[in-house]
Write a structure and sequence with these properties.
The complex is a heterodimer of chains A (342) and B (306). In chain A, 39% of the residues lie in helices and 18% in strands. Chain A is built from 13 helices and ten strands. In chain A, helix 7 runs parallel beside helix 13 and helix 8 runs parallel beside helix 9. In chain B, the strands form two sheets. Chain B has a two-stranded antiparallel sheet. A two-stranded antiparallel sheet of chain B has the order 3-4. Classes of the chains: A alpha/beta (342), B mainly alpha (306). At the A-B interface, helix 3, helix 7, strand 6 and helix 13 of A face helix 4 of B.
Amino acid sequence: MKKLVTTAAALALTAGMASAEGKLVIYHWFEYIPQELLDKFSEEHDVEVVMDTYDSNEALLASLKAGAIGTYDVAVPGDYMVQIMAGEGLLDTIEEGELANKGNIQPEWADPAFDPGRAHSIPYQWGSTSFAVNRDDYDGPIDSTDILFNPPAALSGKINMLDSQGEVMAMAALHMGIPQCSTDREQLKALNAMLQEAKQHWASFNSDTAKEVLVSGDASVGQIYDGFAAKARQEGANIEYAFPKEGYVVWMDNVVLLKDAPNRENALKFMDFLLEPENIAAVTNYARYVAGVDGVGPFLDPELAKQPESNPPADAGKGVFIEVCDQQTQEVYDQIWTNLKK
Amino acid sequence: MAGGAATGGSSTSDTYAEARTWLLLPAWVTLGILVLAPVAIMLVYSFLTKEFRGGVIWEFSLGAYDQFFCNRGLFGDEPCSIEWTYIQIFWRSIWQAGAATLLSLAIGFPTAYFIATRPPRQRTLWVFLVTIPYWVNLLIRTVSMKFLLRDEGPLNDFLTGTGLLSEPLAIVNTNFAVQLGLFYSYLPFMVLPIYAAVERYNFALSEAASDLYAPRWTVLRRILLPSVKPGIIAGCILVFVPSLGSFLAPDLLGGARNFMIGSLIEEQFKGNAGNWPFGAAASMILLTMVLIILLIFARQQAKAEG
């Protein structure tokens, strides 16, 4: 599915582009940016836009490290991946004054821990990852991560998890109340044992079809991104997105300036373009997440403000970003993930 | 080319000798670039040191193979004991692929026999019918399979609707669903070579055996099967080998609860682990295994023909 979507999107984009002055090569998630917005940029700046897509932060990193760096101008990594890519030397620095619209960034996103001072990136969209429960199948309380890791009998065997190590491990850490990059051996052993136990209740690991399994009723509970949950609800699933009291994962995707960008000027133009409220609001309306730019309000679909996925209840736990562990710690987590899926 | 050689006045065999090098060149270049070079890169990478978060450090290391065969505990500091994790994953994949192959053979052989025994004009139509589903992308066929097998899908609607079962049969996210998916994905690879073999089979041999009072079972076992054995072996290899490395059916129909060889290797390159040497090592071990299986078949075939 991923490959199909990717290829189709790439073809659709490269076909029918008139020859233009300059070029812009984007490396982006699939199904995230509306085509009309790319066309608009292309017309406004007389630039030919080419886009390739990827399906996970790790796939983006792997591709760039395997030699794709120097091909693309901009990419859209998530928070922790910005930090990793900066550490790997894959990002170029945006000099002071190079972005006219930098002031539009909301103050809370202007100096994030994953990219201090926004040296390499601008905010794109942010949202949360938690889980959704089908209310036709279960009407009990869902304000705890127990629903995923220690579910009531009614939900056992009806749970889909994201097939993504980072999201599963972060949620598990919240569930146990331990750090995400723990070095405490007892905690790590307990985490390993807890996941082995929890797996007995899980029907499947799937990220691509995280939305579909909820809509079709194949799963009663699904670990899922908030925007996907909203879309599943629009498609008729009677689901409720949970904000567990133990906490949930928050993420932000960011547009980064890649090192050795062949069209650096156009990349900066594109970033300025995405910092204009009207343009970034178009992405929000399409993907159902939240922008990190001031003044988007008037351009947003009014339904967005009302959707439950954007309105955590008062008793919701804290939203936390996925943390970047050092090599030695990460290797233990990799081992735990392999144990879980062996 | 032939004309040029003729004016040169050289003998026919010389002409071929000279031309052969050039005529074989495209094949060698293709093989070299598309087959040998990637395998060579894999082999080299499997003996390098892994770089954190993907990539390799150009230092010789047996780390990847050590990780495959040695269990050093959760924290990697215990002495080496046998690592069953990856052997288990390989075994699961072999078992799945084997089951899918047997299933394909059980359905594919009678199908091929049926087609080959139709009048010649009808045969083309039947072969055509067998291949029609394969004009549709593999992914779409696998997803469709899931829709058929789902708890609320047509199969279960039928079973519960007719009162055959009171509860829907849980097939999706089981090993059986994976086997069905693989079986369906690769069935024509079983049918077509067997069909080709049975079509060439001289049915007068069967008649002769029957005339000599051989029971039907004996005719099948001692006359037909040995004659079409090359087709069966080709079919089994063509189904088994791609099934072994597949990850579409295990992911979509099996729920990806457990790694298969294919998804384990994919995870090393595209997943969180980013362990390229280990992915390369696992690929090399898989490749070696497949080669051994092919060699065994090839030797058996040579023996049978020799």
